[in-house]
Amino acid sequence: MAVSAVVATSCSDYLKVDKYFNDRMTIENVFTSQDYTEQWLADTYSHLKTNGLVDVAGKYSMPHNFADDMTFSDGNRIDCYGYVTSGKWEDIDYASGAWSEAYKGIRKATIMIQNVDMLVADSRYVNEDDVKDYKAQARFIRAYYYWLILRKYGPVPIIGEDVLDYNESYADLARPRNTFDECVDFIASEMVIAAKDLPETRSTLEKIRPTKGAALATRAKALIYAASPWNNPKEGVGDEYKFEDLTDDNGRFLMAQEYDDEKWAKAAAACKDVMDLGIYNLYRAEKRTQANGPLYPVTPANPNAEIADQPWPNGCADFDPYESYRSVFNGQLTLDANPEIIFSRGGAVNQNENIYRQMVEHQMPEDLGGWNVHGMTLKQVDAYYMADGTDVQGKDNYDVASRPKGFTATADEAPYVGANVHKMFVGREPRFYASVAFNGAYWGGLSIDPNNTQYNMMRNMQNWYYRGKGAGFSGDKLWLRTGIGVMKYVHPNDADIASGTIMDKAEPAIRYADILLWYAEAVNEIEGSHEVPSWDYDGADNGYVHQLSRSEREMRAGVKPVRIRAGLPDFDAATYSSVALFREKIQRERQIEMFAETSRWYDLRRWKTAQVELNKPCYGMSVMMMESQAEAFHAPAEVPQYASLFTNKMYFWPISKTELKRNPRLTQNPGWQTYD
């Protein structure tokens, strides 16, 4: 019996639940046994590992992790990445089973919700609170499946409490698509019901099961998406396409056609509900006063006077921003010790394409046993601030004359960089060094035995992307076309050669920084004044009513902690006074803070800025230059292999023809092939 709800196992380890659907006695046998109930619940969770339903993963199961910030360049670059960026999604078969697998999980969860109450009457070991928890978990996961396919495909059919009979005809089983708002309302209401019976915290062995915070955070996420321009069109915000051609089989619009200010207020209130739990915080690591190699440097002095000498939450005098940020992702923190992950599938055993293999291994250079194929765009590099909060010289200007020149002379010239590193990578904010594997960055490999004379030179290795160097172009397929790598999720110990190992990483499906940034974003967009009840408000003794309007104080409450944890000063008064300027800043903050967490793909779509951002050329380094041409290597160069094309049909993934055949009332997303 697995102690966690999500387990990696073969199908034979689970009940074959489908074969019991029409056998009432078998259902009774299942839900009067705690062991069988646990197995049923585990099987319900198991679909979370399906390609396209994971939140953070490698390219094969989550192409949505690669937008205008990340690239991949191995043998599947043309067949997969090119199809993703050019909208040829019907020509690829990976990440296409999300729809059917989600509905399998939804069905199993519904059966459990309807039958698990039998358990308490027949067990000496289970009480009513245990059964409430089981039912709340099933309700959570059912709503979470709906959320995952809503985010990917747009409006979907809501089955509700129906358990459809597989023996009926397709015509009798057919259901139309609900509207986006109806889907979000269902998810939000289900998460509130689940939250009432889910605990605030769980023991170490049950850490990956959902909590009250996970339910409320998913609710907040769904409401943020419902309030965003793709379902809340507002003149001058996002493009003017309103999905008028996305309808159900009776011609009803599935996306909202009019702006509703209250949606932003509801989203802000939902985020505040999570914040008011008082459970989550942004992780902060102790300052380091003594260096232990290049990847464990002394915490440098912060160049921002307003925060340098102030303790948290007003400054960073008492923690190390670099170590704080990278430890959230690289395995340094166990899930149990991580105060900001709200929901996670846990470590590798519970992920499909797990982070430590399909992300980290594909990011590491070949010298450490990696594949050297997950890269970063120059656009993403430019997004990161300088350490003093200013923009890097020449940001988004790809004229070489506008950009920094020169190289570091020694390893101790600047924090976080070694000798011979280009000045464009010097003096950047801490999140940059925790995320970007720039040319000349250190890779630790510290799990390699230092006494191993064959491989010990790979420890604390500077990695170079010059042509002809170990990680640069050398004629094979394993090299970075942008000349910029990815460091996020990589621990200094990680290596896959000799005695080296890669540390396990907990998937950050939803974390507290998400909630804080969503809150600031939502409050900024509110035009009027709104009263929104808290999630637990009952008009009597429980809960309260949020009073919501655009407020600089509340916007600061969201974004300031994220900025301070990153070692950056809060935005100035001019930024807070302008809705448009703050919108631009918060979108950039999400691009940086949430990098490589699947957010960028969906953020660009919900903001309806994808038409602009994803039709820009991709830039990187001039990767055909050798080390002897070091300055020329760092000149911006367009990367034609990553040319992208975004059209309106790419706002939503196509529904497969198989599903269209099964459900004659199902309508295809605009622009994609349908079934005749």
Reconstruct the topology from this structure.
Blueprint: H1 24-30, H2 34-46, E1 70-72, H3 77-86, H4 98-115, H5 118-121, H6 128-153, H7 170-173, H8 180-197, H9 212-227, H10 261-275, H11 305-308, H12 321-327, E2 341-343, H13 355-363, E3 374-376, H14 378-383, H15 430-435, E4 436-437, E5 442-443, E6 461-462, E7 485-486, E8 510-511, H16 512-525, E9 530-533, E10 545-548, H17 552-565, H18 573-577, H19 579-593, H20 599-606, H21 610-613, E11 619-620, H22 630-633, E12 637-638, H23 657-662
Antiparallel strand pairs: 1-3, 2-8, 4-7, 5-6, 9-10, 11-12
Brief overview:
By secondary structure, the chain is mostly helical.
Biggest sheet features: 2 strands, antiparallel
Poorly predicted parts: 1-16, 19-23
The proportion of residues forming helix, as a percent range, comes to 25-40%
Count of helix runs: 23
The share of residues in extended strands comes to under 5%
How would you describe this structure to a colleague?
Helices cover about 35% and strands about 5% of the residues. Helix 10 (about 260-275) runs antiparallel to helix 16 and helix 16 (about 510-525) packs antiparallel against helix 19. It has helices at about 25-30, 35-45, 75-85, 100-115, 120, 130-155, 170-175, 180-195, 210-225, 260-275, 305-310, 320-325, 355-365, 380-385, 430-435, 510-525, 550-565, 575, 580-595, 600-605, 610-615, 630-635, 655-660, and strands at about 70, 340-345, 375, 435, 440-445, 460, 485, 510, 530-535, 545-550, 620, 635-640. It contains 23 helices and 12 strands. The chain has about 675 residues and is mainly α.
